[in-house]
Amino acid sequence: MVPGTAPAVAAPAAGRAPITLAEFGSFHVGGRDFVVSGQPTREVLFSPGGQPARVDPNGTYLVGGMYAGYMIPAPQRGRFPLLMWHGGGLTGVTWETTPDGREGWQHFFLRRGWPVYVSDAVERGRSGWTMIPEATGGQPIFLTEDNPYERFRIGDGPGSRARGTTLPGNQFPADGDSYRNFMRQNVPRFTTTDELTLEAYGALLDRVGPSVVMVHSQGGFFGWRAAQERPDKVRALVLVEPAAVGDLAKVAALKDVPMLVLYGDYIDGDARWPAIRASGMRFAEAVRAAGGSVDVVNLPERGIRGNSHMMMMDRNSDTVAGLVQEWLAGKGLWA
Amino acid sequence: MVPGTAPAVAAPAAGRAPITLAEFGSFHVGGRDFVVSGQPTREVLFSPGGQPARVDPNGTYLVGGMYAGYMIPAPQRGRFPLLMWHGGGLTGVTWETTPDGREGWQHFFLRRGWPVYVSDAVERGRSGWTMIPEATGGQPIFLTEDNPYERFRIGDGPGSRARGTTLPGNQFPADGDSYRNFMRQNVPRFTTTDELTLEAYGALLDRVGPSVVMVHSQGGFFGWRAAQERPDKVRALVLVEPAAVGDLAKVAALKDVPMLVLYGDYIDGDARWPAIRASGMRFAEAVRAAGGSVDVVNLPERGIRGNSHMMMMDRNSDTVAGLVQEWLAGKGLWA
């Protein structure tokens, strides 16, 4: 049953038990003031038939704030909050649902008693963005419907979406309707806001306190860097296909932060992922050499096949989440 | 206690009972394809230290999709889902929390058994935006920190935020930290996407089915228009300081949709709100003349004073919500 359809309003999703929350809500953290001056004022009609208002663009703007929504289950079994940090061009929705309407990893871990915090990175989703180029520089990037289909190891090469073909045995829900749902989740990608974003994740860790941090893709950069800056606030780091690494000069800071790195299928045959994974492996080796602990799982080696770059949305997403849950429990982070 | 702080993770907010959800999740609806052609390709380094990727901007983009998150409580007492549509320059966060960290209207109505759907309008929040001017036209507007303080009837005129002064008895949490939290919720405001947005709200009503629709400010335009286009899908309309009206030529379509319109304090002394309210009153009169039912509440006339344009965030937000709940129950929409 697809959540949100009329029937779903009347009854819980088939086979799913209700969830009791001790608390839920959202908040924003971080951000800086940015001053604009010397610009002309203009009159703006905010709503048709409404009253025009004078808008003076000069003044102080708050840029770089970050949104986080949280759900605290009862009873609670995770020993620390679980923070979920999405990848580039996406928002926290990555963890909330799947393109074919199944429950997402947010549900999976909440149902196992983890307090779950799902945030939107700076300038994406409910964090807002600035539209002041001087504040963050650069041009956001917006993807065509074909781009992720080919780049996220779903389709079998150029033109695959038009053909409607996927890599053999691919687990991503790639039917037309589901893939369209995934594209609706895509938002413009900022490539010049890393510093602001890292600052905001730091503010999130300071506010929530010691946490388990789970990151995806671009989030790998932020997860590793944030843990290097605040090793006392990161009790474990789960990295789902990290697209970038942390600071090689500060690997020693990670020696007491247990890490799990996950990679999906089809990497050897991909144009970019062999190099991205090799870079991640070099970083992991450096962390180990500094006395740290990094467990690396290539899903196919565990007999889990067909996973795209979006494994938290793949049809076997619960299987992959189960492997993460097992690892966290093994580290004594779940009671 | 401020949600999200470390203590809040361990225990429910003081004096608040846990909430049981039969189901929760999110989805996107709507949107159109938009084709871009004749643009040069470029190489993009998505993450520092990552692998550059070629990005071809030509192709088909999905624009105008809309995000909605839902929570279905158990037991359920609302006879229909309650859809919450935010105002301009903001997102669904409007309903989720208050700037001083109290529970928002989402909590208030969920705790009374309403299935609550909180959406982000097209091109705002998790709905994403296009960055293709040809697709939607116009320039988004971003507000200085002073602008809403003066325009939303919080401060007592120009320079009030710098002075730290408010209208007498103002209920908005205007202390420095709280107001900063509110500014973090602000996102760029689009003034040229009304058609796309109305289309997406229609898609939301078609997906969820007959609902009670609650709108704020700019949402007044969308709420009235959507109800005129789909009177069978809107069982009641609650309008919180609507900034614009519906289609005067189609008021007859609203004759079977009970409506409640709420206005806060300080309107008579404001530069724009007397005209905005007068226009709303003319529209309400036209709906009544066509056989419809519109109840109008000016909060001060009920002895509820000090409310800003953001009454769902004001310190007496529960009092105002209680008045709405009473009205809905009175219409037989709550059992």
Automatic annotation (TrEMBL), chains A, B:
CDD domains listed in its UniProt record: Esterase_713_like-1 (cd12808)
InterPro entries with a match to the protein in the record: AB_hydrolase_1, AB_hydrolase_fold, Carboxylesterase_BioH
Keyword Cell inner membrane: no
Domain named AB hydrolase-1: residues: 212-259
Domain of life: Bacteria
GO molecular function: hydrolase activity
Coiled coil: none
Gene3D superfamilies given in the database record: alpha/beta hydrolase
This protein's UniProt keywords: Hydrolase
SUPFAM superfamilies according to UniProt: alpha/beta-Hydrolases
Protein name: Alpha/beta fold hydrolase
Protein source organism: Muricoccus nepalensis
